[in-house]
């Protein structure tokens, strides 16, 4: 079975100036004369969040938030946060012996995202997770509204309602606790190392310098919640599907996935290359100039950067660039996942946390695989496999080529027989 069909992503494009090819796309993503324009459909969520800021405002916001995502944080996250969250989320599925992969991926990543965003879950209950999943799914509808097949005004209204409810149930209590902690740190009662390592704390500590009101903080935290869970859940499903298809054709590699961390991370990176969260990036020219391929654009013109064509360039990734091949040899400084995480000022903050840092070590530190590789590794270690009685289905609610359902059995055959 092949993946979901890639449907047209250009039908909303007002003025098609198209950039194709890896090097042209790389240069365009790094060009500050091209301003982010993909997320204007849902300003109720995306207005003035980091992803939509430009110029000095973006530089200042990114500077305070980037400190949180230093490489030591990626390793801390993998060692201290990930194992507990994964074990708690996976346990009920192991008992049932089955799971739907997109739903599971969203559920496990929502708690990881909440830790980064700064959302407390004092009960640690399934009910809290259910609420966060519902809120964040709605935020994701808003963030990807340009690809939605639903009535856009209706979605905007639902996103606004979800933001209000999320604010009341989760953000305000989390904010009060951090404000108290920051006050105690400011008075010398506590050491600054006792401050939580999350986005909400960073925003509160810098709210005066950055002119951040309560609505802006709400949107930024909600955006980080959806950004950290939505794309990761989709990426996990794509990775499992590609690995499953590969092992059917190359059964000798099935056992290797359980013992060779480098190989399984190569599998994840290869899948990320083939399935970027968005196959295109949209920009708007801030002034008259020439694009990397020589095309002239005027201020206000729309520009589409074709990330998929960049990731499938045969001169960089080989003649079989459009196919999954974890044995692929990529030379030079080209990342194995291509431009999936972007480059330049809008490089995805979650690149190192989700994608990993590779197998090289830094100052004697162990290699960091990233949450996606660790999730896939955990699923395979628990014998996750396609449910022969239930076929995966594409997501019909978006033009993006994602899976809507992907049923799996999980656990050993002996455990399955015992439960039945």
Q: Can you count the helices? A: 17
Give Rg in angstroms.
Answer: 21 Å
The domain tally reads 1
Distance between the termini: 28 Å
Shape: globular
**What is the arithmetic mean of pLDDT?**
87
CATH architecture heading: Orthogonal Bundle
CATH class type: Mainly Alpha
Structural class designation: alpha+beta
- Number of strand elements: 11
CATH superfamily: Cytochrome P450
For the sheet with most strands, the description reads:
4 strands, mixed
Do you know the CATH topology?
Answer: Cytochrome p450
Order of helices and strands: EHEHHHEHHHHHHHHEEEEHHHHEEEEH
Main sheet: which strands, in order across?
Answer: 1-7-4-2
Percent of sequence in beta strands: 5-15%
Low-confidence spans: 5-14, 359-364, 415-420
Describe this structure in words.
The structure is a single chain. The protein has 420 residues and is an alpha+beta fold. The protein has one domain (17-419): Cytochrome P450 (Cytochrome p450), CATH 1.10.630.10. Helices cover 52% and strands 8% of the residues. The strands form four sheets. The chain has a four-stranded mixed sheet with strand order 1-7-4-2. It is globular, with a radius of gyration of 21 Å. The two termini are 28 Å apart.
């Amino acid at each position: 079975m092949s993946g979901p069909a890639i449907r047209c992503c250009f039908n909303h494009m007002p003025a098609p100036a198209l950039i194709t090819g890896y090097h042209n796309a790389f240069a365009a993503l790094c060009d500050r004369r091209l301003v982010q324009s993909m997320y204007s459909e849902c300003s109720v969520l995306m207005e003035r969040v980091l992803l939509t800021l430009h110029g000095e405002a973006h530089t200042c916001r990114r500077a305070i938030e980037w400190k949180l995502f230093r490489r030591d944080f990626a390793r801390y996250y993998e060692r201290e946060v990930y194992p507990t969250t994964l074990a708690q989320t996976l346990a009920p599925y192991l008992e049932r012996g089955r799971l739907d992969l997109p739903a599971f991926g969203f559920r496990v990543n929502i708690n990881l995202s909440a830790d980064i965003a700064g959302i407390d879950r004092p009960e640690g209950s399934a009910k809290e997770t259910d609420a966060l999943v519902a809120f964040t799914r709605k935020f994701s509808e808003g963030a990807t509204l340009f690809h939605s097949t639903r009535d856009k005004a209706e979605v905007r209204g639902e996103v606004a309602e979800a933001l209000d409810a999320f604010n009341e149930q989760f953000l305000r209590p989390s904010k009060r606790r951090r404000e108290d902690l920051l006050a105690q740190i400011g008075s010398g009662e506590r050491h600054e190392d006792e401050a939580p390592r999350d986005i909400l704390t960073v925003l509160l500590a810098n709210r005066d310098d950055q002119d951040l009101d309560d609505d802006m903080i709400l949107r930024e935290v909600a955006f980080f919640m959806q950004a950290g869970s939505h794309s990761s859940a989709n990426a996990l499903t794509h990775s499992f599907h590609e690995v499953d298809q590969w092992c059917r054709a190359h059964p000798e590699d099935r056992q290797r996935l359980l013992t060779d961390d480098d190989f399984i991370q190569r599998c994840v990176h290869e899948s990320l290359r083939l399935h970027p969260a968005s196959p295109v990036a949209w920009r708007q020219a801030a002034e008259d100039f020439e694009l990397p391929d020589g095309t002239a654009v005027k201020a206000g013109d729309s520009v589409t950067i074709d990330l998929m064509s960049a990731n499938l360039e045969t001169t960089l990734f080989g003649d079989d660039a459009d196919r999954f091949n974890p044995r692929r040899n990529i030379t030079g400084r080209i990342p194995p996942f291509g431009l999936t995480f972007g480059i330049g000022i809008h490089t995805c903050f979650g690149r190192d946390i989700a994608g990993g840092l590779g197998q090289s070590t830094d100052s004697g530190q162990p290699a960091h695989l990233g949450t996606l590789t660790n999730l896939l590794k955990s699923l395979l270690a628990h014998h996750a496999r396609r449910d022969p009685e239930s076929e995966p289905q594409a997501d019909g609610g978006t033009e993006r080529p994602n899976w809507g359902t992907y049923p799996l059995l999980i656990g050993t055959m002996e455990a399955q027989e015992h439960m039945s």
